[in-house]
Amino acid sequence: QVQPVESGGGSVQAGGSLNLTCVAPNYMYSRYCMGWFREAQGKGREGVAVIESDGTITYADSVKGRFTISRDNAKSTLYLQMNSLKPEDTAMYYCATDPYYCGLREAGFNYWGQGTQVTVSS
Q: How far apart, in whole angstroms, are the C-alpha atoms of residue 109 and residue 18?
């Protein structure tokens, strides 16, 4: 399996926006659940948002109303639009995909990208 590749991270001030992109090279990923996770320094990896191939979405409570997950199945590409960013959103953000599981638990996903760093300053 070829792993997903994330991009779009960076440094912004609080209140700013970033748009993350994840490309899943294997065409089969268009049928899989895809999701975003994040890992802040010294903390465990937590689910941010996931989206099923039919478009069903689940968000973590901490990002509802600020983050928007979307996907383009034709391009096997996943997006995360992050608005109203807060310093507590600072983390390494990972793209994950799996053919069977679609929830916010890290352990449910089998295919992971290398991550892209998001840093939000106050």
A: 24
Asked if residues 7 and 113 have their Cβ atoms less than 8 Å apart, the reply is no
Query: Given the DSSP bridges, would you call strands 18-23 and 5-7 parallel, antiparallel or unpaired?
Result: antiparallel
DSSP 63-112: TTTTEEEEEEGGGTEEEEEE-S--GGG-EEEEEEEESS--SS-GGG--EE
CA–CA gap between residue 93 and residue 46 (Å, rounded): 10
Query: What are the residues whose beta carbons fall under 8 Å from the beta carbon of 11, sequence distance 6 or more?
Result: 119, 120, 121
For the stretch 44-94, pLDDT in tens is: 999 999 999 899 999 999 999 999 999 998 888 999 999 999 999 999 999
- Closest CA relative to residue 34, chosen from 18, 49, 19: 49
- Both tokens assigned to 18: 């970033």
